[in-house]
Fold this sequence. Notes:
Strand order of the largest sheet of chain A: 2-3-4-1-5-6-8
Oligomer: heterodimer
Mean pLDDT of chain A: 86
Helix content of chain B: 25-40%
Amino acid sequence: MTVKTARVAIAGCPNGGKTTLFNRLTGSRQTVGNWPGQTVERHAGSFTVGERGFEAIDLPGMYGLVAVSAEEAIASRYLTDERPEVVVTVVDSTNLGTGLHLVTQLAEAGLRQVVALNMWDVALRREIDIDVAALSSILGIRVVPTVARRGDGIDELERAVAEAAVETRPPPPLLLDYGPELEQHLDLLTESVRGLDTEHLGPERWVALQLLAGDEYMTRAIAGVEGGAGLADTARQTADAVTTGTGFGPELVLAERRFESVNAVADRVTRHPGDRATWSDRIDKVLLNRWLGLPVFLVVMWIVLRFTADVTAPYLDWVDATISGPVAAWAVAMLAALSLDGGWVESLVVDGVLAGVGGVLVFVPVLFGLYLMLAILEDTGYMARAAAVMDRAMRAVGIPGKAFLPMMVGFGCTVPAIYATRSLESSRDRLLTGLLTPFMSCGARLPVYVLLTGVFFAGSTGSVVFGLYLLGIAVAVLLGLILSRTVLRESEPSAFVMVMPEFRLPNLRTVWALMSQRTWAFIKGAGTVILLASMAVWLLLSVPVTGGGSFADTEPEDSVFGAVSQGMAPIYEPAGFGEWEQSGALITGFVAKEVVVSTMAQLYSVEQAEEAEEPGTVLEDLAGIGTGFLEATRDTFLAIPGVIGLDFFDLEDESTTDLQEAIRTSFEESSDGHGSAAALAFMVFVLLYTPCMAAVAAFRQEFGTTWMWVSVIGQFAIAWIGALVAFQASRMIGL
Amino acid sequence: MMRLAALLEQLRSSSGAVTVAELAQELGTSPDDVTAMLSALRAAGKLGPEALGAPGSDACTSSGSCGAGPCPGPSTCPFVVRFGSMLEVK
């Protein structure tokens, strides 16, 4: 006789170890698809206990059967419609109350459960003592402590699932006492449900509870049952009566009673050391302090940017030396072997691809450093505190509370930040935030800052970059103040609560995953967008319009690119960067901000006289790369104390590359000898003008064409004025 | 007054982000208590996750830093830093 495969749904709140437990149960026997009609992934797998086979379904995270997100709706509908044979409800042992809400609702809905008290080891470590037998007895449900991460308790859980699956009769639903007044209404409603064909919707009392709570899904479902239309009306009238009688909506009254029940159960079975201030709470007192929060946030930002810009510099030099040295030599040698040297192909590879893409890849260590610091802050829990501090600061000056979320997203990339404005209900708040978000300095602008500060502000790179980030915030706040008091007046503020994760030491694996994922995405960008942009710039530089040259053999200023850039250059003259190369880099920066760097690398490398280096053997090159890496590693570690001002070692690198020399000369010439002032103005312009064409497209999609043009023209005007002020002010103070 | 209703009222009057610790102070209770009440409100659908916005469209394919195809939106974008859990009054 064959035994039917039983379905086992794995349900639970997010972050309770649900997916880890699912992986433990199913191992590699998993399939990934989508939930019908949804883009949400559906993970299913199988396991056996003895002879019996089970199909496990990993449900999206949920807190209860009342869905407030698409993912929760999927989980909720699967449980109530499909009614799997067993539900493994994963509960975080350190937060029993939260998980018990879900357990209670599933029990009221008549679903057969086995409760996995997961993260049992953490609970023990925190001296939280849960009486498993008592909990199981009160709930009438088998409860198994587990540590899914280590596989502890999984065998027992499997046995409990197998035993539960043998039962054929539906389990008796949990009957919570909602108090005399509500019970009276519930009894009447339950009686009315009993007369209808609602077996597929769950126990009658559960149907009545959901109708009373105004659950839309249940209301629709009951209206579809023969004779159910009238019941939906009755439920609405009952709900009104409860509201009149208690002063609160029935859904809130039901929630209050459930809360009391769950709290009573949790209190009865749990013993813990009591409410005591953890070290995390004590740190929060400083980090979230009304007066100290913002200064601490600024200091953290300063350390992050100093680390990013200064400590990673040795690796930057190493990648630069590797790409411009051995890699370029190998490419040329390879082309020579293919008889493609000396012509336009070599020019494309060396002046286009290597100069352009290589010019951006040089900054991978810088981005790696930034992502490392952000990942550490994120994993320790500091970013949540930073968000709270930013929110408070912005609200203080009249910018809508929720605006800080998209604006902080903007420090990573402007495009998702513009989409993140969808979280604001009011169209006025959305537009205002959308207009301010581009002023947050995205990661793509960092290579531009590091390149120019390396030339003009060596030794103070981190501080200058920090200043630019602050300037972006200041401009956004100032513009927000002006707009919110003029064309975009404030609407109703929205309320939300931030649940701070406890501070913890960063997990190396998580930090590595976050950091490598972001760095890889940046490298992929260099292999796609920047590669195409570099080839396009090379092509435009190769086509002559004046001077009588031929394709790929023309002076850069005589090319199409040179002609267009020269046409734009006078606009920037008052700000000190009116050379055609600088103007050209800003034009291509519209594609993506890293392209400013790749274009500069291309333009200045084309202009530089090639210095033939004596080529070494491949083995010598590899040995040189390895030695360079070790030296860079040593210098990086020696530079770390310098982040907090402790310069024990003399690491000043006086050497400059040809590109740096060319940039210095260009800015000195464009500004009558005030190169540093012009470079600063250039960086201010890069900070404030249109982030990239993807951001413009996203803005147009979200806010329409008219506002897109307002945004593009406005940002250009603000950037030009900002650069002009920066240049003139810097000159006045002697830069 | 019911405790959950009082918490909701406190949240609505805060006009912006508040932390569990701040709520506990305002209500004269412990952070653990507030966390439990938030769970109850969350399970009842009175609080929902703060949505960062839906995934983007093909318009993002040329995103400068990303280059990873269509913008996945802020919820899954690798460049977006997570700020912890935020619950909004529904």
